[in-house]
Structure formats: structure tokens, C-alpha cells
Design goal:
By secondary structure, this protein is mainly α. It has a domain of 181 residues. Helices cover 67% and strands 6% of the residues. The strands form three sheets. Strands 1-4 form a two-stranded antiparallel ribbon. Strands 2-3 form a two-stranded antiparallel sheet. The longest helix is centred in the C-terminal third of the chain and has 26 residues. The chain is globular and about 50 Å long.
């Protein structure tokens, strides 16, 4: 009995916003997975729970990091602008058209697509933040966005959510290289606006890095062929290298002189 009281006393009186946000993200992936298995004809409910959980989780982070929720409208606006440009001109991704993605559309773009630009941008930013800042953070998070799409795009075209009709560079798993270059450009635009222009902030909480890997793993399982394996391998490699480099910089940082040395 005494031991159980000691454990209870060691627990925090209440969860912090970061912890609540992390748990919401965890539930936002796990619950939809089980729903899809139990109710395969209700996939729309799984997607709704996923998107709602992540939007609410990012909004809650705004309690301690007031600018962080701005990534969502930034991702939505920039993603929508580039998607409208892409559907009408083929720039910067290549020629494609939406087919079986069921949602309301704005100028030919399903609303769910720019919503996911906002969610994925925030997730990549939070995953990269413990290891980098400034321009390095933008480059790392933008690369993580491309890695996500290495699994996402082949999965979506296998479901006929959209079809590719043209693009420059070699093709991989039915997707042109121009698409991945476009993903990097759009991601870098969103993240640069937040990190550089708005001087954004966010928690350096490695749990969110784990949530990125969880999301990437799910996309990898859904991707056809070896697309998912390559994406997962690249994502873990990128984050592993980022950890080693950031940890090395911390170890090599000069220590402040002590009072006696001064």
C-alpha cells in the first residue's frame, strides 16, 4: 500500500499541454487503424478522427507556443495555392488530376488535401525541432515531408485518388521526380514562413519525432511494392543522422567559465 502511494505521489497532478497534444496524436493514429479494421466501409470516419485529433493537438500546443498553430493555416493556404496551380498548369509537381478523393473541392482541389498540407507540415516541424533550428530546421523538416510523400503518393495513386499524366525527370512507383521536387518547394515555403519570417517556436519534445515515425510507418504499410520500405528507411536514416549531428554539437559546445576561473 505504501509503495502504491509513493507511485501516485510521483505522478504529475495534471498533464501539460505538450503531453496532452502528444497523447491526442497517438490516439489520432491508433483509433483510426482499429476502426478501419473493424469498420472497413467507414473509412471516412477514420480520416475525420485523424484530422480532427491532429488539428486539436496542434491547437493545444498553442497554449505554451502561441505561434505554433499558425502552421495549420499557413500549410492550408500555401498548399492550396500550389495545388490550384498544379492542377491548372502542372507546376511545380507535374501534370495530375484528382479522381476518387471524396471531399468538397475548391477550384478543382479536394479540401482534404490542403488540410493535410497543414497537418503534415506541423508534424515534420515538430519531428525536426529537437535536432535543428533556423534554416537547418527548414531543410530537415522539408526533407521529412518528401520522405512522407515517397510512401503516400504511390499509395494514393494505387487507390486512384489521383492519377499522374506527366512530369519531368525519372518516374518511380508511377510518380515523376518533379512531384517530389514540388513537395520540397511547397514544404520549404510553409516552414520558412513560420520559422524565419514569423520566428516561430515549438516544443523540443522527441515524442513528436516518434509520432512522425508512427505516421510514416503507417504510410509505408499502405504503400505498394517497395515504396514504403524505402520511405521508412530514409526517414529513420535522416532522423538518426540529425540526432547524431545535434548530439555531437552539444558535446562540443564550449562550457561557460566558472566563477573561480573568472
Amino acid at each position: 500500500m505504501g509503495a502504491s502511494k509513493g507511485v501516485m505521489c510521483a505522478l504529475p497532478a495534471k498533464l501539460s499541454p505538450v503531453e496532452i497534444s502528444g497523447l491526442l496524436m497517438l490516439a489520432g493514429i491508433t483509433i483510426p487503424i482499429w476502426l478501419c479494421l473493424a469498420l472497413p466501409n467507414w473509412s471516412w470516419l477514420s480520416y475525420a478522427i485523424y484530422m480532427t485529433s491532429y488539428i486539436v493537438a496542434i491547437a493545444i500546443l498553442g497554449i505554451e507556443h502561441r505561434k505554433l498553430p499558425l502552421i495549420l493555416p499557413l500549410g492550408f493556404a500555401v498548399g492550396l495555392a500550389f495545388e490550384i496551380l498544379g492542377v491548372s498548369t502542372g507546376l511545380p509537381f507535374g501534370r495530375y488530376r484528382y479522381v476518387a478523393l471524396d471531399s468538397a473541392r475548391l477550384m478543382g482541389v479536394p479540401i482534404a488535401v490542403p488540410v493535410m498540407w497543414g497537418i503534415f507540415s506541423a508534424l515534420a516541424y515538430l519531428a525536426a525541432r529537437p535536432f535543428a533550428s533556423g534554416v537547418k530546421l527548414v531543410l530537415l523538416a522539408s526533407s521529412l515531408m518528401v520522405v512522407l510523400d515517397l510512401a503516400l503518393d504511390p499509395a494514393m495513386i494505387s487507390w486512384q485518388a489521383w492519377v499522374w499524366e506527366g512530369g519531368w525527370g525519372p518516374w518511380w512507383q508511377g510518380v515523376p521526380l518533379s512531384n517530389f521536387a514540388g513537395w520540397f518547394l511547397v514544404s520549404a515555403t510553409v516552414l520558412s514562413l513560420y520559422e524565419v519570417a514569423l520566428r516561430g517556436s515549438g516544443p523540443e519534445y522527441k515524442f513528436f519525432t516518434a509520432m512522425y515515425i508512427y505516421n510514416l510507418s503507417l504510410q509505408a504499410l499502405l504503400a505498394p511494392g517497395d515504396a514504403g520500405f524505402l520511405a521508412l528507411s530514409l526517414g529513420i536514416t535522416l532522423l538518426g543522422l540529425a540526432y547524431v549531428i545535434s548530439h555531437r554539437h552539444v558535446q562540443q559546445a564550449p562550457l561557460a567559465p566558472s566563477a573561480t576561473e573568472a
